[in-house]
Amino acid sequence: MNYRWNWSILLQEPYTEWLWSGLQWTVAISLVSWALALSVGLVVGVVRSLPSGILRVIAGIYIDVFRNIPPLVQLFLWYFVLPEIVPETIGLWIKRDLPHPEFVTAVVAIGLFAGSRVAEQVRAGIEAVGNHLMPAALATGLRPMQAFRLVVVPLGLRAIVGPLTSEFLVTVKLSSLSLTIGVLELTAQSRHIENYTFQGLEAFTVATIGYLLIGLCVTGLMRLIDDRVGGAALRKAGS
Amino acid sequence: MSDFDWGVIARSWSFLAEGMALSALLVVVATIGGLVIGFGLALMRLSSNRLIAGPAAAYVTVMRSLPLVLVLFWFYFLVPLAIGRPIGSLASALIAFVMFEAAFYCEIIRAGINNVRQGQTEAGLATGLRRSQVMRHIVMPQALKAMTPLVLNQIIIVFQDTSLVYVVALHDFLTTASIVAARDGRPTEMYTLVAVVYLIICLSSTKALEFYRKGRAG
């Protein structure tokens, strides 16, 4: 292999700047779409755990549809198709006046895809806890809705802090898809540097380290949370 | 709202079918290659020798924390440099997919093998079987049973992942559709078609898998 590694290229202007801003976009997209995914996932997951009703069916349809279309295809639907099928004034607004349209589209697409995965975790958590605790909670005299709201949902959510960490890391990885609609996040910036300098491997290495660092920080932070309030704390309290 | 013109699908059908065939090829190669290399990695990770287990664990951790898009770029640029000649985007994408999915299959296989209780190995050894025989006749059959649904699930994920070769301009199903969308100015029809086709294939596979799981559990 006769590739001439040249790490100093990354210290030159503007490439350092590019990578740094790419990392910031990656973090921004990940965090905002994660906030969306958590909110949607919590609501849908809880609704999906209800015993019956039309809402439960709708939640199931959302989960099935959003989990089974590849995220990149969903991103294209939001970006290319949505402005065409909504009424013309709204379509024009999306294309012309929406601030940071690529960022917003990426967040919506990634957030709703990740939201369907979070919803499944939430449902699984509630189901796992509910089977044991529901009869006990009912025996103490709570009404079914109270038992569900006050006992099963909070404990179910605490039990899934661990799996939610992996879901967040999936979301960080998904943020890379937004390069296809022109968001210059970390992966896009390293590709960009390869275009300009032909020294792509250095840039890709830095991007790789960036994703690893984000992953390490998230896992560490979540382990802390898990120990305090999550599944680990629950197991400790139970033993 | 643009008027729908579904004729565009009929006119581009053979091109789209070529894209679908490429997606299918990626799934088959990534699954077979990923399982083979993943099995090797799993055996390495299960080794008690740290010099063997460590590198495999590091490889799996790195691959699993990277976006597939970045891994595609890595191999797209690295492989030609490593062997000194261009190999084209298809070959590099196939290699990237195999190496990426191997990390995920490794974890599935490792969990499957770990799932078989240690006592079974000890009992097998006590009856006088050799270690390789225990692995082949006692551990693997049970591990396979535990692994099958997870592997099938991973194949569905691989199928969804194939859409990402868009970034290295390979003509998979999504890319062919986007080419038609740009050429004919018909993004609505083309991307809806792609979404519906993926939805039908993935949803029916997922439901079939759930059905199969429930059947085995009950």
From TrEMBL, chain A:
<keyword id="KW-1003">Cell membrane</keyword>
<feature type="transmembrane region" description="Helical">
    <location>
        <begin position="25"/>
        <end position="47"/>
    </location>
</feature>
<dbReference type="InterPro" id="IPR000515">
    <property type="entry name" value="MetI-like"/>
</dbReference>
<keyword id="KW-0813">Transport</keyword>
<keyword id="KW-1133">Transmembrane helix</keyword>
<feature type="domain" description="ABC transmembrane type-1">
    <location>
        <begin position="23"/>
        <end position="222"/>
    </location>
</feature>
<dbReference type="InterPro" id="IPR043429">
    <property type="entry name" value="ArtM/GltK/GlnP/TcyL/YhdX-like"/>
</dbReference>
<dbReference type="Pfam" id="PF00528">
    <property type="entry name" value="BPD_transp_1"/>
</dbReference>
<dbReference type="GO" id="GO:0022857">
    <property type="term" value="F:transmembrane transporter activity"/>
</dbReference>
<keyword id="KW-0812">Transmembrane</keyword>
<protein>
    <submittedName>
        <fullName>Glutamate ABC transporter permease</fullName>
    </submittedName>
</protein>
<dbReference type="InterPro" id="IPR010065">
    <property type="entry name" value="AA_ABC_transptr_permease_3TM"/>
</dbReference>
<feature type="transmembrane region" description="Helical">
    <location>
        <begin position="203"/>
        <end position="225"/>
    </location>
</feature>
<dbReference type="GO" id="GO:0043190">
    <property type="term" value="C:ATP-binding cassette (ABC) transporter complex"/>
</dbReference>
<dbReference type="GO" id="GO:0006865">
    <property type="term" value="P:amino acid transport"/>
</dbReference>
<keyword id="KW-0472">Membrane</keyword>
<dbReference type="InterPro" id="IPR035906">
    <property type="entry name" value="MetI-like_sf"/>
</dbReference>
<comment type="similarity">
    <text>Belongs to the binding-protein-dependent transport system permease family. HisMQ subfamily.</text>
</comment>
Automatic annotation (TrEMBL), chain B:
<keyword id="KW-0029">Amino-acid transport</keyword>
<comment type="function">
    <text>Part of the ABC transporter complex GltIJKL involved in glutamate and aspartate uptake. Probably responsible for the translocation of the substrate across the membrane.</text>
</comment>
<keyword id="KW-1003">Cell membrane</keyword>
<dbReference type="InterPro" id="IPR035906">
    <property type="entry name" value="MetI-like_sf"/>
</dbReference>
<feature type="domain" description="ABC transmembrane type-1">
    <location>
        <begin position="20"/>
        <end position="209"/>
    </location>
</feature>
<dbReference type="Pfam" id="PF00528">
    <property type="entry name" value="BPD_transp_1"/>
</dbReference>
<comment type="subunit">
    <text>The complex is composed of two ATP-binding proteins (GltL), two transmembrane proteins (GltJ and GltK) and a solute-binding protein (GltI).</text>
</comment>
<dbReference type="GO" id="GO:0022857">
    <property type="term" value="F:transmembrane transporter activity"/>
</dbReference>
<dbReference type="InterPro" id="IPR000515">
    <property type="entry name" value="MetI-like"/>
</dbReference>
<protein>
    <recommendedName>
        <fullName>Glutamate/aspartate import permease protein GltK</fullName>
    </recommendedName>
</protein>
<dbReference type="InterPro" id="IPR043429">
    <property type="entry name" value="ArtM/GltK/GlnP/TcyL/YhdX-like"/>
</dbReference>
<feature type="transmembrane region" description="Helical">
    <location>
        <begin position="190"/>
        <end position="209"/>
    </location>
</feature>
<keyword id="KW-1133">Transmembrane helix</keyword>
<keyword id="KW-0472">Membrane</keyword>
<dbReference type="InterPro" id="IPR010065">
    <property type="entry name" value="AA_ABC_transptr_permease_3TM"/>
</dbReference>
<feature type="transmembrane region" description="Helical">
    <location>
        <begin position="56"/>
        <end position="77"/>
    </location>
</feature>
<dbReference type="GO" id="GO:0043190">
    <property type="term" value="C:ATP-binding cassette (ABC) transporter complex"/>
</dbReference>
<dbReference type="GO" id="GO:0006865">
    <property type="term" value="P:amino acid transport"/>
</dbReference>
<feature type="transmembrane region" description="Helical">
    <location>
        <begin position="150"/>
        <end position="170"/>
    </location>
</feature>
<feature type="transmembrane region" description="Helical">
    <location>
        <begin position="20"/>
        <end position="44"/>
    </location>
</feature>
<keyword id="KW-0813">Transport</keyword>
<feature type="transmembrane region" description="Helical">
    <location>
        <begin position="89"/>
        <end position="108"/>
    </location>
</feature>
